[in-house]
Amino acid sequence: MDAPTNIQVEVSLGRKKTALLRSLKMPLTLSFPPSPPPTVRDVKRAIQKAFPKFYADRQKLSLPEAPKSLSDDSVLLFDAAGKVELVVGDLGPQISWRTVFIVEYAGPLLIHPLLYHLPTAFYRTEVQHSALQKSIYAMVLVHFIKRELETVFVHRFSHSTMPLFNIFKNSGHYWVLSGLLLAVDAYRPGYSQPVVAGTWRDGPLLQLGWAIWAYAELSNLIVHLNLRSLRPAGTTTRTVPVGYGFSAPFNLSFPNYFFETLAWGAVFLISASPAAALFIAVSFGQMLIWAQKKHRAYKKEFGDKYPRNRKAIVPYII
């Protein structure tokens, strides 16, 4: 049997129809040359060309019998007549991951200086800042400046966008928990120099906290740089992560999450701040969910090639 001269891809609407989907003229038949065989990404681009408002990052393509989203790199399997049927869904308005990260990390960078430098506006009194408060202020600013720089110059994202709503959810986490709540608690008169001087918060424990924090932040940066080197620019290629944090003595799938938690643990160590404890608890809980899910995906994807002794996020435990 001769190979088909063209591949016909019929795209129909899924069951859940948004206002945008209802405005489209579907089903849509698209034609592609058989060589090279078209991918899901090619179909998305063709749909966007036909309906410019329905951009590729907003589309979800699946097979009629399987609602699971097809990856952009999937090659379409056509029948003997050169035909393929796909179902398209609407993921809703999207926003780039990079933009979301920049906005969410900006919150603490704006909020902490306000409360630190304008105490009378918030506490109705002057605050003689203690070494503890100065330390927390420096740790928070350096941490989030580092995160902003990593977002711009280091991170490579497997997906270019996320749902627009996430910018409000993610920003709320950082702007409220590590921003407003932590700043209000950390720079209040109860942590000022006259109160803290001579207590356990004003001694060797502060130096230990700085040592742990600096080690954790540097380790986190090394892991992020290592992850960048494992993914070539402009690709979604993944390999088994190796190197510092991934190998002994840590043996973790996500050492960046571990070091992130350790850095914030240092802030709690020197302050015993309830706000810091709350932020750590919420952050670690979310990172634990992500780490365990991705850890299982790693083992499924790489099989026997993936080190069996690796834990997800906490060395030797989880």
TrEMBL record:
Entry's family note: Belongs to the steroid 5-alpha reductase family.
Family annotation (Pfam families): Steroid_dh, TECR_N
Location within or outside the cell: Endoplasmic reticulum; Membrane
Main localization, broad class: endoplasmic reticulum
Protein name: Steroid 5-alpha reductase C-terminal domain-containing protein
Domain TECR-like N-terminal, residue spans: 38-77
Lineage of origin: Eukaryota, Fungi, Dikarya, Basidiomycota, Agaricomycotina
Its membrane topology: Multi-pass membrane protein
Spans traversing the lipid bilayer: 262-290
Domain 3-oxo-5-alpha-steroid 4-dehydrogenase C-terminal: from-to ranges: 161-317
